[in-house]
Design a protein that fits this description.
3 domains, 19 strands, Protein Transport Mog1p, Chain A, about 45% helix, four-stranded antiparallel β-sheet
Length: about 475
């Protein structure tokens, strides 16, 4: 025991030497990463993000977000960092920051913001995470509890001690936590004021996000799935959150220009939902204009458009069909590709797929993942290799679903010219509200097919009730 205590004290002394003054708060924080290491870590993760998440191709809008972000960052506690602000091309309601000043906002979130001050508030909140080194502090706390747990386990012979310590560390650093989020809100409000934006924009935008979170939870319940919310949103609405009100009101208040029309003009034409570049879901169809392809999934199946794959689930989630790209193998025929994937002794009922500009092969893998049979297909099309895999949770249902999956695979085709317009997806457009205009009337003229009234209210900050004023600029979806 004495030896354990001695080692623990030495280790603790070494860990405490990692304490440093936080540039944003002035407090001494436990960190085990220098600023140069922080920046290089962020750069490395940013490279991974660029490989895994699509970047929105609108250079003008990207430049606009960079200007707004830089205006705030230059007035933060760490203006020396080279900040990079990037729009991610997904419909997610999200934003996040990597160490070293790499900040991302999803275009899905931008559609629901209503002014430049709203955008500035989101970016300022994420800048607050960077200046307070929240991710670095999280990493250091996680590392320290892991090391301490390993020492306790090694010198007591009780493996559970290590597990318990890691559990404690996980509880401490899970996500950013309410304290870090409030700290980011306070710092963000301060940076807004420094950049001549009204700090109240922080409360306004969190209100918008809370409304979106409430709606998403309602929709998720109806669809039988778990809701996903932006990490900066708390359970309480910001109008009733006393601590949030206190941290925002603790900074000098300035009126500032909210830049509403400037922002609305900037996002006029913004992709809504699926984008042209990522492919568009229309009913049962998946349309991808850049790749010039169309595929039709079984009736009632839910299609998920992920950055690296397209996945369709049967209504009861008993069956799945997924499509993704694979590397090209020169001079390897589709049948050989399939054979390499599943093995010759596992192939059953193979057949060729041949149509205009399309060459492929499909077969059943008799005992695929966890011994379950799978429908496997390889399709060569316009210099790309597409893998399609279908499976069921229980093997006894495979014969029921395989014909549906095979029909979907054979629907793979060149994008018909009549579907070009659909394949471009939906866009955010601006319109002036007429006298007596209502969201119900706008919804009837909207391209939205589900929850159209609620969506339009959310887009224009009228959720859950209220009607537009005559002459007001509104966002509609076309």
């Amino acid at each position: 025991m004495c030896r354990l205590l001695a080692i623990s004290f030495v280790l603790l002394a070494a860990l405490l030497s990692g304490c440093a003054v936080n540039p944003a708060t002035g407090n001494r924080d436990f960190v085990m990463m220098s600023e140069s290491d922080e920046i290089s870590t962020g750069r490395r993760h940013a490279q991974q993000v660029s490989q895994q998440l699509p970047i929105y191709p609108d250079k003008k809008l990207q430049a606009y977000v960079q200007r707004v972000g830089q205006r705030i960052a230059s007035r933060s506690h760490r203006p020396n960092i080279v900040y990079q602000f990037t729009i991610v091309d997904t419909p997610d309601i999200n934003a996040f920051a990597l160490p070293g000043g790499y900040i991302y906002i999803h275009r899905g979130l931008m559609a629901y913001l209503n002014s430049e001050a709203d955008l500035a508030a989101v970016l300022a909140h994420e800048i607050g995470h960077v200046t307070a080194r929240h991710s670095v502090r999280q990493h250091s706390a996680s590392f320290a509890t892991s090391v301490l747990g390993q020492v306790v386990a090694a010198y007591t012979g009780v493996g559970m001690a290590g597990d318990l310590t890691n559990l404690l560390g996980t509880a401490v650093v899970r996500g950013y936590g309410r304290e870090h989020e409030l700290e980011a809100d306070r710092l963000g409000a301060e940076y807004l004021a420094n950049a001549n934006y009204n700090p109240q924009a922080m409360i306004n935008v969190i209100g918008v996000l809370k409304d979106q979170s409430t709606f998403s939870a309602k929709k998720a319940r109806a669809e039988g799935r778990e809701p996903v919310s932006y990490h900066g949103v708390f359970a309480t609405h910001p109008r009733h959150d006393e601590r949030l009100q206190q941290v925002v009101n603790s900074v000098p208040q300035v009126s500032g220009d909210d830049g509403r029309e400037r922002y609305l003009r900037a996002i006029d034409g913004l992709a809504f939902g699926d984008s042209t570049q990522a492919g568009v879901r229309v009913g049962r169809d998946f349309l991808h204009k850049p790749m010039d392809l169309k595929m039709t999934f079984p009736k009632g199946w839910k299609i998920q458009n992920n950055p690296d794959s397209v996945v369709a689930l049967s209504p009861n989630e008993q069956a799945i069909l997924a499509m993704k790209l694979l590397p090209i193998k020169n001079q390897v025929q589709p049948v050989e590709y399939v054979r390499e994937l599943i093995g010759s002794d596992q192939m059953l009922g193979g057949h060729a797929i041949q149509k205009s500009q399309i060459k492929g092969y499909s077969a059943i893998a008799k005992s695929g993942f966890q011994g379950q049979p799978k429908r496997v297909a390889i399709i060569y099309y316009k210099g790309k290799v597409f893998l399609l895999v279908g499976a069921t949770k229980q093997s006894r249902y495979f014969s029921n679903y395989d014909p549906l999956m095979l029909e979907a695979i054979h629907s793979f085709q060149v994008l018909p010219r009549k579907d070009y317009k659909k394949a471009e997806g939906l866009r955010v457009r601006l319109t002036r509200a007429k006298r007596g205009e209502s969201f119900a009337r706008l919804a009837k003229r909207s391209a939205l097919t589900e929850y159209s009234v609620e969506q339009l209210r959310l887009l224009n900050h009228y959720y859950p009730s209220g009607e537009p004023k005559a002459g007001e600029w509104l966002k509609v979806i076309q």
